[in-house]
Specification:
single chain; 942 residues; alpha/beta; SH3 type barrels; Dihydrodipicolinate Reductase, domain 2; 7-stranded parallel β-sheet; 6-stranded parallel β-sheet; 34 helices; 17% strand; elongated; binds adenosine-5'-triphosphate; Helicase_ATP-bd; ATP binding; Tudor_2_RapA; hydrolase; Helicase_RapA
């Protein structure tokens, strides 16, 4: 097949045949742009790997031109690479039809044509096609489609967020779970689901340099999403003749610092067009109401404006106070967050709303008139009136409406350790040390940074002078079986200390800081992770404390304490995260009676950060910062003691008000436990799952070698008779996979086989997008049926052409229509199920097919027609069921949106109009739902 693209040619998308017949808009610079008018979609692909198939009709085929009766192709001409069909109407009129004007709505009738033409497949191929069809339909119609395949534990809070996010047409969210609760996993789940639903083709991840590799690996091993990493060198290689290098890949990870250095690359990145943006550590982008805008923030703002779906990740959303929080929310929804002042004002209402939610939760029966009155200030009359019924569901809708319409619920999800539960304990180990004379002498002249990082003032020989070093050596010797992560502020400190420990003292150590290349950093992290021959200690500068996964270690040495509480939380979060099996031991070596002791007391007594994360830490630090700096030098003085008391009281008061107000709203919104548990439960494939049997059938028919590996695990390899490189996802050396999630989590060398695994999806696509097994013939003996009786089994698959974001398959029953037509034209499908027919089938030898077909052709043609008629009669019922499902869901969503629009004058009616336009598109598409005849089997009773 030619893969030279010429504007005007018609092609279909292999993975998305539902888009209808596409038309090439432009083909240059090694990319091809194609429009799918029936679905109102456009796609841009790298030309050499575009998943497109050329549509060329043959003489005798019927073709459709909008607003014209059907035409039959009589001859074909080619002009400048495009086809012109010379076609004839039923009335015998001749029409030249350039392919450009063909209808964009197509249906393929190949099963029928193949059966009647005697182009038949073995009945086992047919059985495989039917199994593929049914499994595919079931998978895509499942509420949890896209959440089953990732190799992750089913943690309810993450699945809840992923499910909620994907309900939005275009999710734009701040994922702000506390550090280590799995924001990367949540983003991966959302992306995986949207990719499988074909709503996201091109995704861009922007991360701090040190996290590039970790994202790359997490996306690949957990989600089978194969990202490319671009840097200047890679771009230069790809930039032939001024091409935009970013259009050559669909899934891209970019290190932030490189983008910030390269104006031209930023522009190219924006021009390349993306469906989804994920930004990790989003608190790095600073914003202020007045003054010079930060270039990084400005760049992020342009990306957020240009890309429909956006996920911003940060564990510390209020890192720079309420302004920082507002700054990120306005990137997601500028209309909802027009001004900082309005945002501040809104927060005043949170406690009152939270109180109302509590009252509703405790409510039994109808509400009192005073509760009704309070609710009326926030909710529409209908929602309040329904509460009078005393129904649980009315109560839940009122709670949902409050959560949804107020606060930041629509854009922000934040789970805490407190709400998720099951986290390890933090244990603080204080290590008081003598103060070096030099430090004591100088201390009155030192600033806070110098006081907290004495190595910067102890001179060149600091390693010999600093008692922390001696303490560390001793500790390492006494705990030689333990892995320890040490974090300090400066790269120089980490480097000096590591060299000393390794070269002078012989410890197995490794270092990780910002002056190393990405590759060196990843090697260092891998050396530390190796339990057999790896490092006992990894020494990181601050950069090592963000985002990385070191939960296999249980000891953290804080060589210095930062002034910024969020940084401290980030450091502890390296070990205190999902996957940590033991306690998190935090070691703080410090000089007795100095600012270092003061800082320790501040975090321990005022903020309680060594016990658990402190959500109000940055607010308290902001308030007390200058008194802290003033009194820190003398931590044993009265001034410091009263500062600690005041700060502790303030922490407690703020935490209380958070519990009463915003946090309660947030936590309720971020995870509704029952719904979340249910999602996690349903996402577990049932024991009766049919995938193992399916893969055996597949191997048999595609010529793969299939071997049992162990309990619930198999090996698939390309077999001797497999056709070429039929399956891209089947490596030459084979693939070992398990059907068991727990096993897949502990055995990363095995694939996790589900219906969403790329190999399985590829096989389904290969079979369903071709005519593989679509027409078959067999003989069978059936008691009670005379020899010569014909039975025609027909499968019709619902299809419609509409934008993927509508996800119309959710509304269509997750199965195909099966008919079994007998000689008399009756449908006896209900009496004889497909599974019962399969074992009765006998193969018909190739040479017997032509004489048999000659004999049965006439009655067979009638039976096919009858099947078509019966399917056409059922079509209305299918369309109606589908549109009822659509109306039920969309009307609820519309109600909710209308309430939001009413409450937020900043959101104009455009959102509602857009919603209505989409609903209308959905209605139209469902009114055009077709039942395509996709598989036919003729059984002849012998
Ligand atoms: N559902 C899950 N199944 C298996 N492992 C998980 C799951 N969720 C999280 N993890 C693991 O827990 C660790 C923390 O997750 P992740 O990195 O996504 O957290 P985070 O919230 O992004 O952290 P940070 O705030 O440090 O950026 C990672 O090692 C991740 O692989």
């Amino acid at each position: 097949m030619s893969n030279t693209y010429i504007p005007g040619q018609r092609w279909i998308s292999n993975p998305e045949p539902d888009l209808g017949l596409g038309i090439i808009l432009e083909a240059k610079n090694r990319r091809v742009q194609i429009a799918f008018p029936a679905a109102e979609e456009e796609r841009t692909y790298a030309a050499d790997s575009a998943p497109l198939s050329r549509v060329q009709f043959q003489v005798g085929d019927e073709i459709d031109v909008p607003d014209q009766p059907a035409l039959t192709v009589r001859s074909i001409e080619e002009h400048g690479g495009c086809l012109v069909y010379m076609a004839e109407s039923a009335a015998g009129e001749q029409h030249p039809v350039p392919e450009q004007i063909l209808s964009s709505v197509i249906s393929l009738h190949t099963a029928k044509e193949r059966l009647l033409a005697g182009q038949l497949d073995h009945h086992r191929r047919y059985a495989l096609r039917v199994a593929s069809l049914e499994s595919h339909n079931r998978a895509v119609a499942s509420e949890h489609f896209g959440l089953i395949g990732p190799r992750v534990q089913l943690l309810p809070h993450q699945f809840y967020i992923a499910e909620q996010a994907c309900k939005r047409e275009h999710p734009r969210l701040l994922l702000a779970d506390e550090v280590g609760l799995g924001k990367t996993i949540e983003a991966g789940l959302i992306l995986h689901r949207l990719t499988l639903q074909e709503r996201v083709q091109r995704a861009l991840i922007v991360v701090p340099d040190s996290l590039v590799h970790q994202w790359l690996v997490e996306m690949r091993r957990r989600f089978n999403l194969h990202f490319s990493v671009f840097d200047e060198e890679r771009c230069a290689e790809l930039e032939v003749d001024g091409d935009n290098p970013f259009v050559t890949t669909q899934l891209l990870i970019c290190p932030l610092s490189w983008l910030l250095d390269e104006d031209r690359r930023r522009k190219q990145l924006l021009d390349a067009g993306w469906d989804m943006l994920i930004v990790d550590e989003a608190h790095h982008y600073h914003w202020q109401e007045d003054g010079e805008p930060d270039p990084a923030y400005g760049f992020l703002e342009s990306l957020c404006e240009a890309i429909n779906s956006v996920l911003l990740l940060t564990a510390t959303p209020e890192n720079t106070g309420i302004e920082g929080h507002f700054a990120r929310l306005r990137l997601l929804d500028p209309a909802r967050y027009p001004s900082l002042q309005q945002f501040r004002d809104e927060q005043q209402d949170y406690a009152a709303i939270s109180e109302l939610i509590s009252e509703l939760q405790q409510l039994e029966g109808a509400p009192s008139s005073s509760l009704e009155k309070s609710l009326q200030a926030y909710l529409d009359d209908d929602t309040v009136n329904e509460l009078r019924s005393g129904d649980e569901s009315a109560k839940q809708s009122a709670i949902n409406a409050l959560l949804d319409r107020f606060g930041t619920g629509r854009n922000l999800f934040r789970n805490s350790r407190h709400s998720v539960g099951g986290f390890p304990q933090r244990q603080l180990h204080e290590h008081p040390l003598d103060t070096p004379a030099q430090y004591r002498l100088l201390s009155t002249e030192l600033d806070a940074d110098q006081l907290l990082m004495p190595e910067t003032v102890l001179g060149e020989d600091w390693l010999a002078e600093d008692p922390r070093v001696e303490w560390l050596e001793k500790w390492l010797l006494q705990n030689s079986d333990e892995k320890v992560l040490l974090i300090c502020h400066h790269a120089d400190t980490a480097r000096d200390l590591e060299l000393y420990l390794r070269l002078r003292r012989g410890f197995a150590s490794s270092v990780f800081h910002e002056e190393m290349t990405l590759l060196e950093r990843d090697r260092a992290a891998a050396y530390f992770a190796d339990w057999e021959d790896g490092a006992q200690i990894l020494l990181c500068s601050e950069i090592g404390s963000e985002g990385r996964n070191f939960q296999f270690a249980q000891h953290l040495v804080l060589f210095d304490l930062p002034l910024d509480a969020d940084l401290l939380e980030q450091r502890i979060g390296r070990l205190d995260r999902i996957g940590q099996d033991g306690d998190v031991n935090i070691h703080v070596p410090y000089y007795t009676g100095t600012a270092m002791a003061g800082m320790l007391a501040w975090y321990r007594d005022a903020l309680g950060l060594f016990n658990a994360p402190c959500p109000v830490a940055s607010a308290v630090v902001q308030q007390f910062r200058s008194s802290l700096l003033d009194t820190l030098k003398n931590p044993e003085g009265d001034g410091f003691a009263s500062l600690l008391d005041a700060a502790r009281e303030q922490t407690q008061a703020l935490e209380q008000s958070l519990r009463d107000g915003r946090n309660q709203l947030l936590e309720l919104n971020s995870c509704r436990p029952e719904a979340a548990e249910q999602i996690a439960e349903l996402t577990t494939p049932s024991q009766a799952d049919t995938l193992p049997d399916y893969l055996e059938m597949l191997a048999d028919q595609l010529g793969l070698d299939h071997e049992d590996h162990s309990e619930a695990a198999i090996i698939l390899r390309p077999g001797e008779h497999m056709v070429g490189d039929l399956l891209r996802h089947l490596p030459e050396e084979g693939i070992t996979g398990t059907f068991d999630r727990q096993r897949a989590l502990s055995r990363e060398d095995m694939a996790f086989f589900t219906w969403e695994h790329p190999l399985v999806r590829e096989a389904l696509e290969l079979i369903l997008s071709s005519d593989f097994g679509s027409a078959s013939i067999c003989t069978m003996q059936v008691k009670g049926l005379p020899a010569g009786t014909l039975l025609l089994e027909a499968f019709f698959n619902p299809s419609t052409q509409a934008p993927a974001s509508l996800q119309l398959q959710r509304y269509v029953p997750g199965q195909s229509l099966r008919l079994l037509i007998d000689n008399k034209g009756r449908d006896i499908a209900a009496k004889v199920p497909h599974a019962k027919l399969n074992p009765l089938c006998h193969h018909v030898k190739k040479k017997m097919v032509p004489p048999l077909m000659r004999e049965v052709r006439a009655p067979l043609a009638k039976m096919v027609k009858m099947a078509e008629q019966l399917a056409a009669e059922r079509l209305d019922e299918w369309r109606q069921r589908a549109s009822e499902n659509l109306e039920a869901e969309r009307s609820l969503e519309r109600q909710r949106l209308a309430a939001l629009v009413e409450r937020n004058p900043a959101v104009d009616d455009e959102a509602l109009a857009e919603f209505d336009r989409y609903s209308e598109l959905g209605r139209d598409a469902l009114a055009r739902l077709q039942l395509d005849m996709v598989a036919l089997r003729l059984a002849i009773v012998s």
